[in-house]
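FYI - complex with 2-phosphoglycolic acid, inputs then prediction.
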Amino acid sequence: MGKKLIVGNWKMHLDVQQSSLLVHKLSGLVKSHRDVEVVIAPGFLALQSVSLQSHLHKMKLAAQNLYWRDEGAFTGEVSANQLRGLVDYAIIGHSERRHVFGERDRDIRNKVQAALRNQIKPILCIGETAGERSDGETLDVLRDQLVSGLSNVTSEEVAEIAIAYEPVWAIGSGDNATAGDVESAVKTIRGQIKHLFGVSASSEIRILYGGSVTSGTAPGYLEIDGVDGLLIGGVSLDAYQFSEIVKQAHKPVSNGKDKG
Ligand code: PGA
């Protein structure tokens, strides 16, 4: 079994100094575990200074977004080429990028390509809106977003990618997807990866769940068959809760029932 992946998405919170302070706090609380990979995604401005903090070694860095061209006249954008060497991962196609900033499937596909081209591992976010869910379209939406986001990716490259299933209605809302919802979504995602890239890619690819996860609900999600980690938004700014979630990811599944 691969490592569990716990990702904290800080979104547009904290200035550079506050980001350094949170890293400092996290480094005191987060324990290193061989079976858990911990990734934090501060804002762009804080990435450089945070990368120089000596205690960062327990955690890897992710960008929250990137632009797909390597360089050029693209005012205000940050390219994968500029992020190369600074971050290990990039969150791509987050629902806020899709729905607040109008990113289209084509943009997302280009960003996945740009990340891979620059040795950055994409965390590709997919998920249905409340309307799509009530129309019974969830699984079709997931399949379509995968086909589109991963077109032009090779079966060697796909192992570098993590997929985050994040129902749009569950993000930042306090609404929790049920274990059944997540299990069927994850099964569909793995099935689609198998269809596109074959059996070994489908067993290797890491699939995360995200959407209003707290240290109270994390153990339940981590126990779901096929869930390899979590993408945490709001709660990732709370060093104590985030470190608890890392601890929960480390616990063997057989002890899951005792987590309380
Ligand atoms: P949330 O955000 O945990 O605050 O719902 C998750 C995300 O946006 O990745």
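The longest helix spans residues 179-197. Strands lie at 4-9, 36-41, 60-63, 89-92, 121-126, 162-165, 206-210, 229-232.
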